[in-house]
Hints:
Blueprint: E1 2-6, H1 17-30, E2 36-39, E3 48-51, H2 56-62, E4 69-73, H3 87-104, E5 107-110, H4 113-121, E6 127-130, H5 137-140, H6 144-154, E7 162-166, H7 175-184, E8 189-193, H8 205-213, E9 219-223, H9 230-236, E10 239-242, H10 252-259, E11 263-266, H11 269-274, E12 280-282, H12 285-297, H13 299-312, H14 318-335
Amino acid sequence: MKIHVISETVFHIKGNGVHTAFVDHVDLLKSKEGIEVIINNEKKKGDIFHSHTYGPYYFMKGFPYKHKRVLTTHVIPDSIKGSLPMWRLWMPFVKWYFKQVYSYADVCIAISPRVHEAILEIGAKTNIVNINNPIPIEKWQRTDENRKKGRALLGIKEDAFVVLGVGQLQARKGVEDFVDVSEQVPEAEFVWVGGRPFKMMTEGISRIDERIAHAKPNMHFAGMYDLDTMPLIYAAADLMLFPSYQENCPLAPIEAAASGIPVIFRDIPEYVSLYENPYLKAKTTDKFVEMTKQMIASFAYYQEGSAISKQLIIQFDRNIILQKLLAVYEELLKKA
Protein backbone atom coordinates (compact mmCIF):
# COMPACT_ATOMS: atom_id res chain seq x y z
CA MET A 1 0.00 0.00 0.00
CA LYS A 2 1.32 3.45 -0.96
CA ILE A 3 0.33 6.41 1.24
CA HIS A 4 0.91 9.93 -0.09
CA VAL A 5 1.37 12.11 3.03
CA ILE A 6 1.59 15.90 2.76
CA SER A 7 2.07 18.86 5.09
CA GLU A 8 2.66 22.46 4.09
CA THR A 9 4.62 22.94 7.32
CA VAL A 10 7.63 21.48 5.50
CA PHE A 11 7.81 24.63 3.38
CA HIS A 12 7.46 27.27 6.08
CA ILE A 13 6.12 26.87 9.67
CA LYS A 14 7.88 23.98 11.44
CA GLY A 15 7.75 25.17 15.04
CA ASN A 16 4.33 23.79 15.89
CA GLY A 17 2.50 20.61 16.80
CA VAL A 18 1.11 20.07 13.32
CA HIS A 19 4.59 19.62 11.87
CA THR A 20 5.54 17.29 14.73
CA ALA A 21 2.40 15.21 14.12
CA PHE A 22 3.25 15.02 10.40
CA VAL A 23 6.80 13.80 11.12
CA ASP A 24 5.56 11.27 13.67
CA HIS A 25 2.92 10.02 11.22
CA VAL A 26 5.49 9.49 8.46
CA ASP A 27 7.84 7.66 10.85
CA LEU A 28 4.96 5.50 12.06
CA LEU A 29 3.97 4.43 8.54
CA LYS A 30 7.59 3.72 7.61
CA SER A 31 7.86 1.36 10.57
CA LYS A 32 5.22 -0.92 9.03
CA GLU A 33 6.40 -3.51 6.53
CA GLY A 34 4.50 -3.34 3.26
CA ILE A 35 3.77 0.40 3.48
CA GLU A 36 5.45 2.82 1.08
CA VAL A 37 5.32 6.50 2.04
CA ILE A 38 5.30 9.22 -0.60
CA ILE A 39 5.99 12.66 0.86
CA ASN A 40 4.73 16.00 -0.43
CA ASN A 41 5.70 16.94 -3.97
CA GLU A 42 7.17 13.64 -5.11
CA LYS A 43 5.81 12.75 -8.55
CA LYS A 44 4.80 9.21 -7.57
CA LYS A 45 1.10 8.44 -7.16
CA GLY A 46 -0.11 6.73 -4.04
CA ASP A 47 -3.13 4.58 -3.23
CA ILE A 48 -4.30 6.94 -0.47
CA PHE A 49 -3.84 10.67 0.05
CA HIS A 50 -3.37 11.88 3.65
CA SER A 51 -2.88 15.56 4.55
CA HIS A 52 -2.05 17.33 7.81
CA THR A 53 -2.64 20.87 6.52
CA TYR A 54 -5.44 22.66 4.72
CA GLY A 55 -4.02 25.30 2.38
CA PRO A 56 -4.03 25.48 -1.44
CA TYR A 57 -1.42 22.71 -1.58
CA TYR A 58 -3.92 20.35 0.10
CA PHE A 59 -6.55 20.98 -2.58
CA MET A 60 -4.04 20.78 -5.42
CA LYS A 61 -2.22 17.59 -4.39
CA GLY A 62 -5.45 15.89 -3.35
CA PHE A 63 -7.21 16.49 -6.68
CA PRO A 64 -6.26 13.11 -8.30
CA TYR A 65 -7.37 11.18 -5.20
CA LYS A 66 -11.15 11.51 -5.30
CA HIS A 67 -12.80 9.11 -2.81
CA LYS A 68 -9.37 8.37 -1.27
CA ARG A 69 -8.60 11.58 0.66
CA VAL A 70 -7.83 11.65 4.39
CA LEU A 71 -7.30 14.77 6.50
CA THR A 72 -5.95 14.73 10.03
CA THR A 73 -7.89 17.62 11.55
CA HIS A 74 -5.51 19.55 13.79
CA VAL A 75 -7.26 22.92 13.55
CA ILE A 76 -10.87 23.99 14.13
CA PRO A 77 -12.41 27.47 13.88
CA ASP A 78 -12.03 28.02 17.65
CA SER A 79 -8.26 27.72 17.19
CA ILE A 80 -8.05 31.28 15.84
CA LYS A 81 -9.37 32.74 19.11
CA GLY A 82 -6.40 34.34 20.82
CA SER A 83 -4.17 33.41 17.87
CA LEU A 84 -5.00 36.02 15.23
CA PRO A 85 -5.76 39.70 15.83
CA MET A 86 -9.41 40.74 15.32
CA TRP A 87 -10.40 37.09 15.18
CA ARG A 88 -14.11 37.89 15.52
CA LEU A 89 -14.06 39.60 12.12
CA TRP A 90 -12.34 36.60 10.57
CA MET A 91 -14.63 33.96 12.08
CA PRO A 92 -17.43 33.84 9.43
CA PHE A 93 -14.88 33.33 6.64
CA VAL A 94 -12.90 30.84 8.75
CA LYS A 95 -16.02 28.71 9.34
CA TRP A 96 -16.91 28.77 5.64
CA TYR A 97 -13.36 27.86 4.61
CA PHE A 98 -13.02 24.99 7.07
CA LYS A 99 -16.33 23.57 5.90
CA GLN A 100 -14.78 23.33 2.41
CA VAL A 101 -11.57 21.85 3.85
CA TYR A 102 -13.34 19.13 5.84
CA SER A 103 -15.80 18.31 3.05
CA TYR A 104 -12.96 17.87 0.53
CA ALA A 105 -11.73 14.89 2.56
CA ASP A 106 -13.49 11.53 2.37
CA VAL A 107 -12.38 10.87 5.94
CA CYS A 108 -11.54 13.47 8.57
CA ILE A 109 -9.49 12.09 11.43
CA ALA A 110 -10.60 13.87 14.60
CA ILE A 111 -7.66 13.98 16.99
CA SER A 112 -9.97 14.65 19.93
CA PRO A 113 -13.69 14.52 20.80
CA ARG A 114 -13.86 18.33 20.59
CA VAL A 115 -12.56 18.20 17.00
CA HIS A 116 -15.24 15.62 16.18
CA GLU A 117 -17.89 18.00 17.53
CA ALA A 118 -16.47 20.96 15.59
CA ILE A 119 -16.60 19.09 12.27
CA LEU A 120 -20.24 18.20 12.91
CA GLU A 121 -21.13 21.75 14.04
CA ILE A 122 -19.74 23.27 10.86
CA GLY A 123 -21.92 21.01 8.68
CA ALA A 124 -19.12 19.39 6.69
CA LYS A 125 -20.01 16.44 4.45
CA THR A 126 -17.37 13.90 5.40
CA ASN A 127 -16.83 10.74 7.43
CA ILE A 128 -15.27 11.24 10.86
CA VAL A 129 -12.96 8.77 12.60
CA ASN A 130 -11.51 9.44 16.07
CA ILE A 131 -7.76 8.74 16.28
CA ASN A 132 -5.32 10.49 18.63
CA ASN A 133 -1.91 11.71 17.51
CA PRO A 134 0.73 9.00 18.03
CA ILE A 135 3.65 9.67 20.38
CA PRO A 136 7.07 7.98 19.92
CA ILE A 137 7.56 7.58 23.66
CA GLU A 138 11.09 6.23 23.46
CA LYS A 139 12.19 9.38 21.61
CA TRP A 140 11.23 11.65 24.52
CA GLN A 141 12.45 9.63 27.51
CA ARG A 142 15.08 11.70 29.25
CA THR A 143 18.60 10.60 30.13
CA ASP A 144 21.25 12.16 32.35
CA GLU A 145 23.29 12.97 29.25
CA ASN A 146 20.40 14.77 27.55
CA ARG A 147 19.65 16.63 30.77
CA LYS A 148 23.19 18.02 30.91
CA LYS A 149 23.15 18.92 27.22
CA GLY A 150 19.76 20.59 27.52
CA ARG A 151 20.76 22.71 30.50
CA ALA A 152 23.98 23.74 28.80
CA LEU A 153 21.98 24.73 25.71
CA LEU A 154 19.56 26.81 27.78
CA GLY A 155 22.29 28.27 30.02
CA ILE A 156 20.66 26.90 33.19
CA LYS A 157 22.58 25.69 36.26
CA GLU A 158 22.47 21.98 36.98
CA ASP A 159 21.03 22.42 40.49
CA ALA A 160 18.15 24.73 39.45
CA PHE A 161 14.50 23.66 39.45
CA VAL A 162 13.37 24.33 35.88
CA VAL A 163 9.76 24.99 34.90
CA LEU A 164 9.12 24.67 31.16
CA GLY A 165 6.49 26.21 28.90
CA VAL A 166 6.21 25.30 25.21
CA GLY A 167 4.11 27.04 22.57
CA GLN A 168 3.85 29.96 20.23
CA LEU A 169 4.18 33.43 21.77
CA GLN A 170 0.49 34.25 21.55
CA ALA A 171 -2.32 34.93 23.99
CA ARG A 172 -4.10 31.60 23.37
CA LYS A 173 -1.10 29.66 24.65
CA GLY A 174 -1.19 31.39 28.04
CA VAL A 175 2.34 32.78 27.89
CA GLU A 176 1.35 35.84 29.92
CA ASP A 177 0.02 33.60 32.68
CA PHE A 178 3.29 31.66 32.59
CA VAL A 179 5.17 34.92 33.18
CA ASP A 180 2.80 35.73 36.06
CA VAL A 181 3.64 32.41 37.70
CA SER A 182 7.38 33.00 37.26
CA GLU A 183 7.09 36.30 39.15
CA GLN A 184 5.49 34.55 42.14
CA VAL A 185 7.93 31.61 42.21
CA PRO A 186 11.38 33.28 42.23
CA GLU A 187 13.03 30.14 43.60
CA ALA A 188 12.66 28.39 40.22
CA GLU A 189 13.94 29.10 36.71
CA PHE A 190 11.20 29.45 34.07
CA VAL A 191 11.88 28.75 30.38
CA TRP A 192 9.45 29.40 27.53
CA VAL A 193 10.30 27.69 24.24
CA GLY A 194 8.48 28.89 21.12
CA GLY A 195 8.34 31.74 18.67
CA ARG A 196 6.01 33.58 16.32
CA PRO A 197 5.59 31.78 13.01
CA PHE A 198 2.82 34.23 12.06
CA LYS A 199 5.01 37.28 12.82
CA MET A 200 2.92 40.44 13.07
CA MET A 201 -0.29 38.45 12.57
CA THR A 202 -0.06 37.28 16.18
CA GLU A 203 -2.71 38.27 18.70
CA GLY A 204 -1.37 40.36 21.61
CA ILE A 205 2.08 40.83 20.09
CA SER A 206 2.70 44.31 21.58
CA ARG A 207 1.39 43.34 24.99
CA ILE A 208 3.48 40.16 25.12
CA ASP A 209 6.59 42.00 23.91
CA GLU A 210 6.14 44.39 26.84
CA ARG A 211 6.01 41.46 29.27
CA ILE A 212 9.14 39.94 27.69
CA ALA A 213 11.02 43.24 27.98
CA HIS A 214 10.22 43.54 31.70
CA ALA A 215 10.49 39.88 32.71
CA LYS A 216 12.29 38.97 35.96
CA PRO A 217 15.78 37.39 35.81
CA ASN A 218 14.33 33.91 36.43
CA MET A 219 12.14 34.13 33.28
CA HIS A 220 13.92 33.02 30.09
CA PHE A 221 12.56 33.18 26.54
CA ALA A 222 14.59 30.59 24.63
CA GLY A 223 13.06 30.99 21.16
CA MET A 224 12.29 28.13 18.79
CA TYR A 225 14.17 24.85 18.53
CA ASP A 226 13.94 22.21 15.85
CA LEU A 227 12.23 18.90 16.54
CA ASP A 228 15.49 16.97 16.94
CA THR A 229 16.60 19.32 19.74
CA MET A 230 13.38 19.18 21.76
CA PRO A 231 14.28 15.93 23.62
CA LEU A 232 17.15 17.90 25.19
CA ILE A 233 14.78 20.70 26.18
CA TYR A 234 12.31 18.36 27.91
CA ALA A 235 15.20 16.52 29.59
CA ALA A 236 16.47 19.82 31.01
CA ALA A 237 13.14 20.54 32.73
CA ASP A 238 11.74 19.37 36.06
CA LEU A 239 8.14 20.43 35.49
CA MET A 240 5.95 21.62 32.62
CA LEU A 241 3.14 24.14 32.90
CA PHE A 242 0.71 24.09 29.99
CA PRO A 243 -1.56 27.13 30.53
CA SER A 244 -3.09 27.18 27.03
CA TYR A 245 -6.70 28.38 26.78
CA GLN A 246 -7.74 26.28 23.75
CA GLU A 247 -6.34 23.00 22.46
CA ASN A 248 -7.45 19.98 20.47
CA CYS A 249 -4.89 17.22 21.05
CA PRO A 250 -1.70 19.07 22.07
CA LEU A 251 1.58 17.23 21.57
CA ALA A 252 3.94 19.28 23.76
CA PRO A 253 2.50 18.27 27.16
CA ILE A 254 2.35 14.60 26.14
CA GLU A 255 5.96 14.74 24.93
CA ALA A 256 6.91 16.30 28.28
CA ALA A 257 4.96 13.59 30.11
CA ALA A 258 6.78 10.95 28.04
CA SER A 259 10.08 12.42 29.23
CA GLY A 260 9.01 11.59 32.79
CA ILE A 261 8.28 15.02 34.28
CA PRO A 262 4.98 16.15 35.85
CA VAL A 263 2.73 18.31 33.65
CA ILE A 264 0.15 20.77 34.97
CA PHE A 265 -2.57 21.62 32.44
CA ARG A 266 -5.01 24.49 32.48
CA ASP A 267 -8.40 23.17 33.54
CA ILE A 268 -10.38 23.47 30.28
CA PRO A 269 -13.32 21.34 29.00
CA GLU A 270 -11.45 19.90 26.00
CA TYR A 271 -9.21 17.74 28.18
CA VAL A 272 -12.09 16.16 30.10
CA SER A 273 -13.24 14.30 26.99
CA LEU A 274 -9.75 13.87 25.49
CA TYR A 275 -7.74 12.15 28.22
CA GLU A 276 -8.62 8.65 29.35
CA ASN A 277 -6.46 8.84 32.48
CA PRO A 278 -6.12 11.45 35.26
CA TYR A 279 -4.01 14.58 34.75
CA LEU A 280 -2.89 17.50 36.92
CA LYS A 281 -4.84 20.70 36.31
CA ALA A 282 -5.12 24.28 37.53
CA LYS A 283 -8.00 26.66 36.85
CA THR A 284 -6.28 29.93 37.90
CA THR A 285 -2.82 31.47 37.99
CA ASP A 286 -2.87 31.23 41.79
CA LYS A 287 -3.47 27.49 41.50
CA PHE A 288 -0.57 27.13 39.04
CA VAL A 289 1.61 28.97 41.57
CA GLU A 290 0.44 26.80 44.47
CA MET A 291 1.00 23.53 42.59
CA THR A 292 4.42 24.64 41.29
CA LYS A 293 5.58 25.52 44.81
CA GLN A 294 4.33 22.17 46.05
CA MET A 295 6.27 20.37 43.30
CA ILE A 296 9.44 22.09 44.50
CA ALA A 297 8.83 21.51 48.22
CA SER A 298 7.45 17.96 48.29
CA PHE A 299 9.34 15.02 46.80
CA ALA A 300 6.30 12.76 47.36
CA TYR A 301 4.03 15.15 45.45
CA TYR A 302 6.58 15.37 42.65
CA GLN A 303 6.76 11.57 42.39
CA GLU A 304 2.98 11.43 42.25
CA GLY A 305 3.04 13.93 39.37
CA SER A 306 5.58 11.81 37.48
CA ALA A 307 3.45 8.70 37.98
CA ILE A 308 0.41 10.54 36.59
CA SER A 309 2.46 11.47 33.50
CA LYS A 310 3.40 7.82 32.98
CA GLN A 311 -0.28 6.80 32.96
CA LEU A 312 -1.38 9.75 30.83
CA ILE A 313 0.65 8.74 27.77
CA ILE A 314 -0.70 5.18 27.51
CA GLN A 315 -3.58 6.11 25.16
CA PHE A 316 -1.12 7.54 22.59
CA ASP A 317 0.58 4.19 21.95
CA ARG A 318 1.91 4.11 18.38
CA ASN A 319 1.01 0.48 17.68
CA ILE A 320 -2.66 0.94 18.53
CA ILE A 321 -2.88 4.13 16.47
CA LEU A 322 -1.13 2.49 13.50
CA GLN A 323 -3.76 -0.26 13.39
CA LYS A 324 -6.54 2.34 13.43
CA LEU A 325 -4.92 4.26 10.55
CA LEU A 326 -4.46 1.13 8.46
CA ALA A 327 -8.14 0.25 8.99
CA VAL A 328 -9.12 3.69 7.61
CA TYR A 329 -6.93 3.24 4.54
CA GLU A 330 -8.15 -0.29 3.83
CA GLU A 331 -11.79 0.74 4.13
CA LEU A 332 -11.28 3.61 1.68
CA LEU A 333 -9.58 1.33 -0.82
CA LYS A 334 -12.47 -1.14 -0.61
CA LYS A 335 -15.03 1.57 -1.29
CA ALA A 336 -12.97 3.15 -4.06
